[in-house]
Amino acid sequence: MAREILGDYLAAVGDQIRWRRARGPLLRELSDHIADQAADYQAQGLEERDALDRAVAEMGDPETVGKDLDRLHRPKNCWWLALAALLLALAGLLLQFMTYQASGQGMMDLYARQAVWVPIALALLCGMWFSDCTLLLRRWWAVVLTIAAVVWAVLGTNGTWRPTALYVALLLPVLYAALLCRLRGKGTATVLLCALAAWVLPLPALLVPSSAAYLLSGAVMTLVLLAAAGLGWFAGKRWKHLLLSLTPTLLYFGILLLLVRQHSSLLRRLTVFLHPELEPNGAGYLFLHLRQGPDPDLFGNVLGSTDLMLAFLARQAGRWVFLLTAVLLALAALLLLRRVARLRSRTGKLLALSALLPLLLQGVFYLLFNLGYFPWVPLSLPFLSFGVAYLLLNSLLMGVLLSVFRMDVLLRDGLCDRSHASLHHRLELPLGPVTLSIRFHRPT
Amino acid sequence: MARERNLPGGTGMLLLSLLSQEEMYGYQMISALRERSNHVFDLKAGTLYPLLHGLEAQGYVTARDGEAGGRVRRYYAITSAGRAALAEQAEQWRTYADGVRGVLEGGVFCGA
Predict the structure, then answer these.
(1) Could you tell me if residue B108 is inside a domain?
(2) Within a domain: A332
(3) Is the CB of A414 less than 8 angstroms away from the CB of B46?
(4) In chain B, what residues touch A65 (CB-CB under 8 Å)?
(5) What is the mean pLDDT of chain A?
(6) What is the distance between the alpha carbons of residues A179 and A350, in angstroms, rounded to a whole number?
(7) For chain A, what percent of residues have pLDDT higher than 90?
(8) Chain A, nearest residue to B56 by Cα
(9) What is the average per-residue pLDDT within A272-297?
(10) pLDDT at A363
(11) Is residue B19 part of a domain?
(12) Are A300 and A341 contained in the same domain?
């Protein structure tokens, strides 16, 4: 009977909370409080039933409490970002059509396929946006998914699914961040292992081979780890963890430099990238022509390439295209990083960074490649360049970012399995040795 | 309402003051407030949580889930912005309280 009173009280509070995902965490906090209060009353000599009864009466008017909590817990949708993604996807279609027209026959079917996938990608983005991003934090899903993704990437490199490793490399940082969220308060050994994992997990991308995918994935994971160390996520001195986070990266690039010096083919590639004029008609041809600016001969050959869309546009409209892209990228980075910094929880910050940085870095790599200053073929220019798989993956990343922004008020650091955000009209709350089942009347 | 709670001497200031000493969970805060105020402040839980979540939205406190004695609890801790707000409100409160005390106890008239 007393438990029914408690259930009725919580249901009455929950009825006032319009955002269903907020009900679980909020009511759980209230029920924990009631349990504490009831335990105190029992210690003072009251019977269990009377203690619970009195504890509920102490809570205050459920309608007022519910309304107050509702006012403070509304989803924070970042509409301008979703609109920007939509506009970019549409602008991408237009740019791709221009490229198709300029390059002639044989592209229309591919363009049509891309056009069909744009709404599907946007639907995927919306699906992620309105989903519960804390799902990744529960139990050890992040570990299971990371292992599955890496195995899938390795297996894929042997067959017709070679690009799988590239796609996995793009998504790995999100899983990595979810994994970090479960390692709060761990010590230096964990930091070192995580720092090593950042460069080991994306290794399958090198089997494709794609150095750009490997660099992007490794760099993003290292940056997320640095952010975690800087935010005091681990137990111990921050500076020590920051240093440990960077150690494998420094070692890795040190070894890479040694390899370059010992292997003549690698050294030649690096030399040609730094001095393309040494091989103007060979390996340095593309770098040289891209750095020199619009060149009709070059673009006659590579006009249809989705990797050189900015260079193509620059040839049509002028080099200000590069400047505009750089300014837009810097502006997006500034606005979004500021938004991430304002998130309440460190968990939210890490998840948001892991989704945002791959999008930004792809843009930077693409821009540098089009200017002739990036040695490897880039992955994509998010939402703008051609490619269905990248469009879907970037939509997924954008969806994760929007979901983290939306759920900011509900994200908490700490016990990940507790971050449940049920959408059901029924809620199960643990109360001592039993479970309290609450049914809401107000379908929202 | 929320603004009233953040006024010098308001409940918000009292909660920030409690949290400036150690991180606490909701029930612990109510008990500590009651004890330290000699039962003058007997806050209802229904008032406490919206107030705490409001302080969290303002960036004055952060929350984390932690385990203590086999039970999961939500702990609140004051932020540097919260400490700054507390210092400012405490100063305003002292000025206000000194003024009231001066009037009640018959202050010294200066400048005659």
Answers:
(1) no
(2) yes
(3) no
(4) 46, 49-50
(5) 84
(6) 10
(7) 36
(8) A344
(9) 78
(10) 95
(11) yes
(12) yes
Tens digit of pLDDT for each residue in A384-401? Answer: 888 888 999 999 999 999
The answer to the question of residue B112 being in a domain is: no
Q: What CATH number did the domain enclosing B90 receive? A: 1.10.10.10
Residue B64 has pLDDT above 70, yes or no: yes
Contact A344, A211 (CB under 8 A): no
Q: What is the tally of structural domains in chain A?
A: 3
**How wide is the angle at C-alpha B111 spanned by C-alphas B110 and B112, nearest 5°?**
100
Do both A302 and A339 map to the same domain? yes
If one compares B96 and A355, the residue with the highest pLDDT of the two is: A355
Q: SS3 string of A109-150?
A: HHHHHHHHHHHHHHHHHHHHHCCCHHHHHCCCHHHHHHHHHH
Residues of chain B with Cβ-Cβ distance to A71 below 8 Å are 50
Chain B partners within 8 Å of A29 (Cβ): 26, 49, 74
Bridge partners of A436, per DSSP, are: A429
- A155 and A99 within one domain: no
What string of DSSP letters covers B47-82? HHHHHHHHHHHTTSEEEEEEEETTEEEEEEEE-HHH
Q: Could B49 and A415 be called an inter-chain contact, meaning their C-beta atoms sit closer than 8 Å? A: no
> Does the residue A279 lie in any domain?
no
State whether A56 and A34 are in the same domain.
yes
Tokens of A259: 């390899």
Please indicate, yes or no, whether residues A435 and A358 belong to a single structural domain of this protein. no
Burial class for A433, CB neighbours closer than 10 Å (0-12, 13-18, 19+): exposed
ipTM above 0.90, yes or no: no
The pair phi, psi for residue B76, each rounded to 5°, is -115, 140
Residues of B within 8 A of A34 (CB-CB) are 45
For A86-105, how does the pLDDT look when each residue is reduced to its tens digit (9 = 90+)?
999 999 888 888 777 776 65
Question: Where is A198: in which H helix or E strand?
Answer: helix A188-200
Q: What is the pLDDT of residues A29-63, one digit of tens each?
A: 898 888 888 888 888 888 888 888 888 888 888 99
Residue B22 in any domain: the answer is yes
Question: Using the beta-carbon criterion (under 8 Å), do A418 and B44 form an inter-chain contact?
Answer: no
Same domain, A62 and A91: no
| Closest residue, chain B, to A36 (C-alpha) | B27
| A44 lies in the same domain as A124 | no
Query: Which of A283-287, A380-384, B72-76 has the weakest average pLDDT?
Result: A283-287
Say if the Cβ atoms of A412 and B63 lie within 8 Å.
Answer: yes
pLDDT at res. B47: 87
Structure tokens at A333: 């980075």
The residue of chain B with its CA nearest to that of A73 is B53
Residue A434: partners with Cβ closer than 8 Å, 6 or more residues away: A3
Q: Which residues of A touch B54 (CB under 8 A)?
A: 72
CB contact under 8 A, A37 and B45: yes
Asked, for residue A287, whether it belongs to a domain, the answer is no
- Is residue A388 domain-shared with residue A321, that is, in the same domain? yes
What pLDDT is stored for residue B2 in this prediction?
45
Residue span of the structural domain in which A47 resides: 2-74+421-439
pLDDT at site B8? 55
